[in-house]
Amino acid sequence: MDFSLTPAQEAFRGEVRAWLGANLPPDWATRPVTEVPRADMYEFGRVWQRKLYEAGLLGITWPKEYGGRGLTWMEELIFHEEMVFHKAPPPLNIIGLGMAGPTIIAYGTEAQKTRHLQKILTGEEIWCQGYSEPDAGSDLAGLKTRAIPDGDDYVVNGQKAWTSLAHIADWMMLLARTDPEAPKHKGITYFLVDMHAPGIMVRPLRQLTGDAEFNEVFFEHVRVPASNILGGVNRGWEVGITTLMYERLALGFGLQARFQIVLDAVIGLARRMRHNGGTAAQDPVLRQKLAQLVIDNAVFKYTAARAVTRLLRGEMPGPEASAGKIWWCERHQALQETAQELMGLYGQIGKGSPWAVDQGLWQYAFLRSRANSIEGGTTEIQRNIIGERVLGLPKD
Ligand SMILES: Cc1cc2nc3c(=O)[nH]c(=O)nc-3n(C[C@H](O)[C@H](O)[C@H](O)COP(=O)(O)OP(=O)(O)OC[C@H]3O[C@@H](n4cnc5c(N)ncnc54)[C@H](O)[C@@H]3O)c2cc1C
User: Fold this and answer.
1) pTM across the whole model
2) Considering only CA atoms, which residue is closest to atom 44 of ligand 1?
3) What rounded mean pLDDT belongs to the chain?
């Protein structure tokens, strides 16, 4: 790894720093932070995304002709570092920017790239990911949603589950079965689906936190033009895995940055909360825990940097992506547990109570963090991937 920046990269850092310094809302630094967009932040996230786009700070590695910046993963890393430094909020269209866009760049036709990429960057069209079904989560290749050709269209019937942001999404990356006779990984096709098409019903699922950020999505005779297939008929598994690879890569950059923002906020909380006659920050046991989390995040940062080095050499990221996912969710859950520990009984007081600390954010964040070891592929599945591909163990 080479950590020295070229003069052009230093100049890019200066540009991002100056822009964020001038454009974040003035009271931003004092607002509570979360790692996912919440319902009361959607509108802010949309406007914020548009501003980032207009400043040329989204799609940093995307080709210029589709609204990107045409730079390298090093500039992407610099951008995330500066976002941390300024405690900047995430843009709203996280699934579009992190997953749909890169997959369309990799597999899309010229027409698909022209149609979708810019609107992903501007946030005009929000995306969701229609992979999981009630009986196909870890065993994704067992999915049953069917797409049958009919003239120039395919007709889709079936159900997706746990679809994040489907309730505000305009487009979905859909995996559907197009050849039920083929071995299960071979008969799947990847479609770009207009969420406003007739026959799509979205039903929110309420979570432990009280929010409903994910949904069940039902398809009843939904017509999807064949021109919306990405990467070819029955090639959906390969295309879908590319999206997951980008998802884990986005986790590597984005979540390391957000982890640091939340960690800084917990350290600030420790300085404010009373604990055993002093502040929580003076408690030797809590100090040790916080120090360990700071060290762990430095390790994660350099693991993400190893993945960047591979990308800069034109290689694909390897097992760093799965290791990073496990690391992040275990550390983030430990961080939220530490926040609860240092708050004592105040940690149980939620939004709406005058006694709630930081408007109940920490109670929310603790409950939300339980999903980290499920979303984006469970910890057990990531361990299987590492066992098979890194350690060479027999397949599970
Ligand atoms: C907050 C959140 C947001 C999500 N957003 C989306 C989204 O936007 N789009 C989408 O498509 N999906 C989404 N998901 C779904 C997520 O990808 C699945 O929940 C996940 O892949 C697990 O699938 P499952 O829930 O069916 O559990 P199952 O696959 O039924 O697993 C149940 C348990 O068995 C374990 N297990 C299963 N197979 C094995 C094995 N072979 N070896 C060892 N252990 C195993 C699992 O680790 C788990 O502990 C989201 C989930 C959450 C929690």
Assistant:
1) 0.92
2) 380
3) 90
